[in-house]
Amino acid sequence: MGAGNLNEQLRLVVVGHVDHGKSTVVGRMLADTNSLPEGKLDQIKLLCEQTSKPFEYAFLLDALRDERDQGITIDAARIFFKSASRHYIILDAPGHIEFVRNMATGASHADAAVLVIDAKEGIQENSKRHGHLLSILGVSSIIVAINKCDLVDYDESVFDALKSEYCAYLSELGVNPLAVIPLSGRFGDNIVSNSPKMPWYHGPSLLQALDDIPLPDSSQNLPLRMPIQDVYKFTNFNDNRRIVAGRIESGQISVGDELLFLPSGKRSKVSTVEPGETTAAAGSCTGVTLEDQLYLSRGDVISKVGEAAPSVASNVFGNIFWLGRSPMKVGRTYTFKIHTAEVKGRLEKINCLVDSQNLDRQDAAPEIPQNGVARCELSFDEPVAFDPSAFIAEMGRFVVVDDYRISGGGIIEGAIESKQTELSRGGVTRALKWATGRISTRERAQRFNQRPTLLLITGEDSLDRKALARELEANLFAEGKVPYFLGIGSVLYGLDSDIADNPQAGEEHFRRIAEVAHILLNAGLIVIFTASELSAKNVQIIKTLTYPDWIETVWLGSKVTTDLECDLQISSDTSTEEAVSQIKSYMQQQGIILKII
After folding, report:
1. Distance (Å, rounded) from C-alpha 564 to C-alpha 540?
2. Staple 136 to which of 92, 321, 357, 438, CB 3.0 to 4.6 Å?
3. 563 or 235, higher pLDDT
4. Is the pLDDT score of 329 beyond 80?
5. Between the CA of residue 519 and those of 43, 211, 454, 515, 522, what are the distances in Å?
6. CATH value at residue 37
7. Do the domain assignments include residue 432?
């Protein structure tokens, strides 16, 4: 085989029902293309002799001793493999029904799939379930491999019947396989080259079909998408770099590029591409330093000013394949992991529920049962940057975590048009049009020795929040900080005077408050805002339009009377002096202000 092209890399998942020969197929292909480490094949053959087991190519992939003892694969193996045309990362996914969760994790990162079916045993429940899962996760480049044809004497009629039945099933899912190939993993028939044992088959071998899979739409030519994995800070040897690290899912990034970070809406230019490069492209794990050392966090997506920006929304349409033992219920809170973002969210509505085995459809339902598939509407507690999976697959896939376990997976098809989506879109537009001065927010924060923060003091209507806010403002100012008290009346009868008497203008009030807060936060201030009994929806509007990681909520009162999850609660019988002390202590813990000695 040739050296391959480092710029062409395809991520492949291999799936199928238990014992249909997935690992054997992959192991045989690695062996027949001389892709195994030197001596690996002889090592496994010797081990089989020592343990009195017949040699199987599947053992080449079984990394754990207990997997070989059990005779099954219990985790997804990552195999780096190359043909003459390109490089591959192959995910050998488990086939047992209890291991479908692991398979979902692998498939959620795959560009293409090989679905293996045993020619003698035929199409089984996981053959269908895996096919459905691949379609839900947006993996449309699928090759069907009819394996173990040696067990049916390479009978063409058996192959034709299985091909017809399974293609009809995939057609119901809207999937058209790239190829359906008869093969024998055990004897290597049609794995790398066409076998004389099946002269009636005139299509490509498995390796040829893999090499013919079109790469994802020239990901380097798509808009830049780099979800932030982490921000690394250095202090030794006067190294004050802050490296923003992540994997570039699409596009390219170069020194001098002007970047937009979403959903936070921040902007800066690239100073360096690490380590010591001038540019990096899709598929690279890299880091960049910025001209402005912004406060950025995991889950922000780096895009490029001048290119199409990702969508930002809190409400989306999506498809979900549910694996949890307990059903996924409408209205219950779950954790969603979308690229590097992790947010709380809910299943708001099921528009169509499908049984993954018989494809029976139900127009509406209160929950998604185990192994059920649903087209649905989702809401997140905070805006998320994403792209529809049909545009950039990696930016539109997600997994759902329930009780610390991956219990489902799916794709985002698009944003739901709503007031919240409109606000998010407005925030993106504002970020692109924002006129910046020569002094950065970070420089102002350093001058003031504080982290810009919007402190929302809310609570029971009968308690005096304004007195607490004013006392806190005076106390912080006396210690050299730069706070600003913003009472709701200051906005209501000024900026909002045109809608002050409109009972339907609640959302617009909070939109304008968020815009004022955004300006004050950019000025590096600690903004203290008061309003009675804020709800989660009120706070969500504010978070959508300004920096959500710079917002802290304080509830004044012994009982929280709304659905707001506050960061700090202060009892109603607490004195103003003690309440100020509690808030300042919390601010010190969060790094908003330094402890005054």
Report:
1. 10
2. 321
3. 563
4. yes
5. 66, 53, 11, 7, 5
6. 3.40.50.300
7. no
In 3D, which of 429, 264, 402, 218 has the Cα closest to residue 325? 402
Tell me the angle at which helices 465-478 and 576-589 cross, rounded to the nearest 10 degrees: 60
Residues 389 and 474 in one domain: no
Rounded to the nearest 10°, the torsion over CA 246, 250, 256, 261 is -60
Q: Are residues 117 and 240 in the same domain?
A: no
In whole angstroms, what is the distance from residue 472 CA to residue 558 CA?
20
Residues 55 and 172 in one domain: yes
**Would 490 be classed as within a structural domain?**
yes
Say whether both 289 and 403 belong to one domain. no
Q: Which helix (H) or strand (E) holds 27?
A: helix 22-32
pLDDT: is 38 or 18 the higher one? Answer: 18
Give the C-alpha separation, 439 to 394, whole Å. Answer: 36
Domain boundary among 211, 229, 256: 211
- pTM, entire model: 0.66
Give, as one character, the DSSP assignment of residue 213.
Answer: S
Q: Is the domain of 343 the same as that of 471?
A: no
Among 211, 231, 256, identify where a domain stops: 211
Sign of CA dihedral 423, 426, 432, 438: negative
Contact yes or no for 549/231 (Cβ under 8 A) = no
pLDDT of residue 203: 95
C-alpha 454/C-alpha 516 separation (Å) is: 11
Render 358-417 in DSSP notation, one character per residue. Answer: T--EES--SEE-TTEEEEEEEEEEEEEEE--TTTSHHHHEEEEEETTEEEEEEEEEEE--
Q: Pick from 5, 12, 39, 273: which is nearest to 143 by CA? A: 12
pLDDT at 75 over 70: no
Q: To 10 degrees, what angle do helices 125-136 and 100-107 make?
A: 30
Instruction: Give dist(CA 475, CA 336) in Å, integer.
Output: 40
Residue 453's domain comprises 441-589
Task: Decide if pLDDT at 94 tops 70.
Answer: no
Same domain membership, residue 320 and residue 297: no
Q: Tokens standing for 374?
A: 């649903």
> What pLDDT was estimated at residue 65?
34
Asked if 413 contacts 389 with a C-beta cutoff of 8 angstroms, the reply is: yes
Q: Which residue has the tokens 């959500």?
A: 548
Angle at 169 between CA 165 and CA 174, to 5 degrees: 140
3-state secondary structure of 501: coil
Which CATH number do you get for residue 337?
2.40.30.10
* Bridge partner residues of 9 (DSSP): 87
Q: Is residue 3 part of a domain?
A: no
**Residue 577's pLDDT is what?**
94
